[in-house]
């Protein structure tokens, strides 16, 4: 384990201890004044040594490394683990409740387990010589421009979210196609989707359109893989490798701190040698 990860773990221990000391059970019924509350908040922030990061776009996570490749996949994920370890200990506005404390401890425990799994999922024999590629990590529907007449792709924006990633990371389903799996097309005539509009006429509620989008994306994922099989079978080969899926799940676990219990469940299965897909758990 790198010296940097050791330092991050020390910071995490300190942050969790502060959260526990701030809990209602230890603080009691007395409320801290605004000055002490502010000081406590700033103390927690400085101990973690990291700023707030956006989980919707990874470009900030890799901005410092976008101009050069990592030496290995292990270095790439060790760096992510270090940042996420600190991120998981950031305090919220006001004093944390029992749920905050449980989440902080859960995230810290998950990070320790991920660090232990790192050499297994990314063996030392693979270090050096891995293939890295440029990757647009925020390829969501809002960043893809279509021609209104031909419906063909006219452009892609938000290129500040581009960085170098291992090949297994790039060979995953694009973000704009991700959704919960829905194999059956929703029927607008189902009572569940019906509603009465303000003018008294019948209508369809928003739930139908959400479910329809999930069904459409499920179909499009299959179409996407079929087309990639024709255009670039090597991409599909990497995508379907079990090792690539496990590495991609590991990456998802590093950045997924709100659903720490799902990550914990996934870690239990992986440590027992079972096949489990974290991304399916998070989306479904």
Automatic annotation (TrEMBL):
Pfam families: APH (PF01636). Residues 113-165 form the Aminoglycoside phosphotransferase domain. SUPFAM superfamilies: Protein kinase-like (PK-like) (SSF56112). It comes from Massarina eburnea CBS 473.64. This is Aminoglycoside phosphotransferase domain-containing protein. Residues 68-92 have a biased composition (Acidic residues). Residues 39-67 have a biased composition (Low complexity). Residues 16-107 are annotated as: Disordered.
């Amino acid at each position: 384990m790198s010296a940097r990860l050791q330092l991050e773990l020390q910071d995490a221990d300190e942050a969790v201890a502060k959260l526990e000391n701030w809990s209602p059970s230890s603080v009691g019924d007395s409320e801290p004044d605004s000055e002490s509350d502010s000081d406590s908040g700033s103390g927690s922030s400085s101990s973690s040594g990291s700023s707030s990061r956006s989980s919707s776009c990874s470009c900030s996570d890799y901005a410092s490394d976008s101009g050069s490749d990592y030496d290995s996949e292990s270095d790439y994920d060790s760096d992510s683990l270090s940042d996420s370890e600190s991120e998981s200990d950031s305090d919220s506005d006001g004093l944390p409740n029992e749920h905050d404390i449980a989440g902080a401890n859960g995230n810290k425990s998950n990070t320790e387990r991920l660090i232990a799994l790192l050499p297994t999922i990314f063996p030392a024999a693979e270090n050096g010589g891995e293939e890295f590629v440029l990757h647009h990590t925020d390829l969501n529907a809002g960043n893809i421009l279509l021609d209104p007449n031909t419906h063909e792709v006219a452009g892609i924006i938000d290129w500040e979210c581009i960085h170098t990633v291992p090949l297994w990371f790039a060979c995953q389903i694009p973000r704009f196609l991700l959704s919960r799996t829905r194999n059956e097309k929703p029927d607008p005539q189902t009572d569940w989707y019906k509603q009465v509009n303000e003018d008294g006429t019948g209508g369809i509620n928003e739930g139908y359109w959400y479910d329809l989008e999930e069904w459409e994306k499920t179909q499009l994922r299959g179409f996407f893989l079929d087309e990639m099989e024709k255009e670039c079978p090597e991409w599909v080969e990497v995508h379907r490798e079990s090792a690539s899926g496990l590495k991609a799940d590991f990456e998802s676990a590093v950045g997924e701190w709100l659903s720490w219990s799902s990550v914990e469940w996934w870690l239990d299965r992986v440590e027992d040698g079972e096949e489990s897909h974290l991304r399916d758990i998070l989306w479904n």
